[in-house]
Design goal:
By secondary structure, the chain is α/β, with parallel strands linked by helices. The chain contains 7 helices and 6 strands, in the order ααβαβαβαβαββα.
Length: 207
């Protein structure tokens, strides 16, 4: 279900300036100044001038970025969730996601965006899994109509970059337009898990 953030109390001109600055930093390298005006205008033209910030997260890192975008862009926040949650264990999730990807399986969604037609700009956040987009994100895109919308992805990866994620999401929503978006290396759940297990083993604490 859509959760709408209360409006931030600040002058309209100040809010617009912060919004344009953030959209600009996400949309293009500094050299591509000519793209700034169009991208900022797109982000202003959602429901009542609001964009939608939709995200999928497992460890919570992507949620942090989504919340920042929602606050600074005065956007509506929506969490993409599978009908059946992924396993709590990291490696079990990796195995399940790999099997879903190999079978081209689209996991059912817990809910869709009921008023998606109200938005023209959608910020789409997700972690990079197996050098690709998680299958649940493909479900989100494939099961709703993104015609005449601009999708701006934002991603965290574990050190191997975007992989083919951009191609995958573009294929899942061919009717949408895509902006370059934002990507950064995030906290690596696999590395953390392996280091903790190594510590337990060396400390003779593991069962």
């Amino acid at each position: 279900m859509m959760r709408t953030k209360p409006s931030t109390i600040m002058p309209n001109t100040a809010k617009k300036t912060r919004r344009e600055m953030l959209v600009s930093s996400l949309l293009f390298p500094l050299a591509a100044v000519s793209a700034m005006s169009a991208a900022s205008a797109n982000a202003e033209s959602g429901a009542g001038g609001k964009p939608l910030v939709a995200y999928f997260t497992r460890s919570g890192n992507t949620r942090t970025i989504a919340a920042l975008l929602s606050r600074d862009l005065d956007g509506d926040l929506f969490e993409i969730e599978p009908a059946t949650p992924y396993p709590a264990d990291y490696f079990a999730t990796v195995d399940q996601a790999t099997h879903e990807r190999e079978r081209n399986f689209l996991p059912p969604l817990k809910a869709g965006v009921s008023n998606l037609s109200s938005y023209k700009t959608v910020f789409l956040g997700f972690p990079i899994w197996g050098a690709s987009a998680p299958p649940i994100v493909r479900s989100f895109l494939a099961n709703q109509d993104f015609s005449e919308k601009t999708i701006i992805p934002f991603n965290l990866h574990g050190g191997y970059g975007l992989g083919n994620s951009r191609e995958i999401i573009a294929k899942a929503a061919p009717q949408a337009s895509f902006a370059p978006g934002f990507v950064m290396e995030g906290l690596q759940e696999r590395r953390t898990t392996e280091q903790v297990r190594d510590w337990l083993t060396k400390s003779d604490l593991a069962r």
